[in-house]
Specification:
Helix content: 55-70%
Strand order of the largest sheet: 2-3-1-4
CATH architecture of the largest domain: Orthogonal Bundle
Number of domains: 3
Strand content: 5-15%
Shape: rod-shaped
Radius of gyration: 71 Å
CATH topology of the largest domain: Helix Hairpins
Number of strands: 4
Largest sheet: 4 strands, antiparallel
Distance between the termini: 19 Å
Length: about 525
């Protein structure tokens, strides 16, 4: 009994029909499954063994404490690994390893050089950070180098070779970074030294140019200004005294000139009287001539009427009077003790007025000399006053310019101190960078070190034959079942009364008739 093919859609088969289908095609399912499994197993076990070797490289910490020598290379493991990987895994390095260790002999016959390098770089060789070492900060971390290949000895050699390249490149990279830092600091230090020398020269030139007006010289300026004021006051007082003395000398000169004129008149009158006596030849006794002391006394009395006792002219006349009185007293004593009487000198033999005239002229010359000296002293003191006044004005100008100079000096000093501080800071950094460079070159700094070198693997990691075999058998069985189900769908036959609709009544069952070969041919001819 047949049924409509349109009703044979998935999901409408009865479970009994599926079981009947499996039982009906049990031989086909078994043979297909076995054939696919055997073929797959042959392929799986014919696949070459792939071995894997790996090595762990850690960042070894700095040997010298950082408080003594600070490293100038601060880079995270991730950044360092990315940069070094480009140099280690470049085409020339990998090609050198492939040639030295004889890698990929079969692939060389089929693939190009670029394809082999790409396979090694992106498939067979892997570099990964170790779990727990994020490498987000300088000074720590670890990573693993892994390589897969058909030869266990070769994969171990490749891993150790690449690990050694990482160590050498890291050493060279850190040394170059440290040397670059030291070179950079040296250039900056040279620039800072030039700037410092320039600032120092400007400051020195400023001090030389405005010497005597600098802020630190303010006490000396004020002291010099006070000294000049005191000197000016003393000079003014000396000029006043000199002018007063000059007035006194002028008065003295005027009095001496008056005395000289009086003496000359007296001398003229005496000569006139002598001539008159000689002409008249009178026998009368000559009139006694006044004594020099009396003449000086008369002059003193006249001077006292005009001046006080402290006046220089009065003092001079008093001294002259005392001298003359002493000489007259000595002369009188000598005359009293003499045995021979001396004749009375004639008026022409004694010339007291001539002596007085000579003394008056000497006094006039002396006073004029003193007056000339006094005038010269006044001129000198006036010149000194002008000089002191100019110096006071100069020092006063310097004191008034102190705020301006202080501001300019502060700017130059600030720039100089900044340059000096910058220079010393760069010098310390330069010395520290040089020690850090020596530390890097001496392998005493932070560096890569292999803690777990690659060993020759014993068991292959690929292919996983047990897992692949299990998957293969399951896949072969599924493929066989699917093939059986497709066969039944193409036939479109009813597999049992359970496939009929519920409203249909089954009248009878026809057993399965298996025809032999001759019977099939007879049936075909009958049809």
């Amino acid at each position: 009994m047949t049924r409509d093919k349109n009703r044979l859609i998935p999901g409408q088969f009865h479970p009994m029909s599926l079981l009947r289908m499996l039982w009906k095609h049990r031989m086909l399912i078994t043979i297909t499954t076995l054939a696919i499994s055997i073929a797959g197993l042959i392929v799986i076990y014919a696949m070459p063994d792939i071995y894997q070797a790996d090595a762990v490289i850690v960042v070894d910490s700095q040997k010298i404490p950082e408080k003594f020598v600070a490293s100038t290379v601060e880079v995270t493991l991730r950044d360092s690994l990315n940069e070094i990987s480009h140099r280690v895994l470049n085409s020339s390095q990998l090609q050198q390893i492939i040639d030295d260790l004889g890698l990929y002999p079969k692939e060389r016959k089929k693939k190009s050089r670029e394809e082999i390098l790409d396979q090694m770089r992106n498939h067979d060789l892997t570099i990964t950070l170790e779990r727990g070492f994020g490498g987000v900060r300088p000074g720590g971390g670890a990573f693993r180098v892994t390589y897969e290949g058909p030869s266990p000895v070769t994969v171990a050699k490749v891993v150790n070779r690449i690990a050694d390249l990482f160590i050498r490149e890291n050493f060279r990279d850190r040394a170059e970074r440290a040397a670059g830092t030291s070179e950079f600091l040296e250039q900056r230090l040279d620039e800072a030294q030039k700037s410092l020398d320039q600032q120092e020269a400007m400051l020195s030139q400023y001090k030389m140019r405005y010497s005597g007006e600098l802020p630190q010289q303010e006490p000396e300026l004020l002291g010099a200004l006070n000294r000049l004021h005191s000197e000016l006051i003393a000079n003014e007082e000396a000029i006043t005294r000199a002018q007063q003395n000059r007035l006194l000398l002028q008065n003295t000169l005027q009095f001496a000139e008056t005395d000289e004129a009086g003496t000359e008149r007296a001398l003229a009158e005496a000569e006139k009287a002598a001539k008159l006596q000689a002409t008249t030849k009178e026998a009368a006794a000559p009139k006694p001539q006044p004594k020099p002391s009396e003449v000086v006394r008369a002059q003193l009395e006249a001077a006292q009427l005009r001046y006080t006792d402290d006046h220089p002219e009065v003092k001079l006349l008093k001294a002259e009077l005392a001298r003359l009185e002493q000489e007259e007293s000595i002369a009188a004593q000598q005359a009293a003790t003499s045995d021979v009487a001396k004749p009375i000198p004639s008026p022409t033999a004694i010339h007291p007025t001539v002596a007085d005239l000579n003394r008056a002229k000497e006094r006039i010359a002396t006073v004029r000399t003193q007056l000339a000296l006094m005038d010269a002293d006044i001129v000198k003191r006036n010149n000194d006053r002008d000089r002191i006044t100019k110096e006071i004005a100069d020092y006063q100008g310097r004191v008034e310019s102190l705020p301006k100079r202080e501001q300019q000096m502060a700017g130059l000093t600030r720039d100089y101190e900044n340059s000096k501080t910058n220079y010393h800071s760069l010098l310390e950094k330069k010395m520290s960078a040089e020690m850090a460079t020596q530390m890097e070159r001496g392998k005493q700094s932070e560096r890569f070190a292999v803690t777990d070198p690659a060993r020759v693997p014993v068991k292959p990691v690929k292919p996983k034959r047990k897992t692949l075999s299990t998957v293969l058998v399951i896949a072969a069985l599924g493929l066989s079942l699917g093939l059986t189900f497709l066969i039944e769908l193409r036939k479109g036959v009813v597999l049992g009364e359970w496939e009929l609709p519920e409203q249909m009544v089954v009248l009878g069952k026809i057993p399965r008739i298996v025809l032999t070969g001759p019977e099939i041919r007879v049936a075909d001819r009958a049809v």
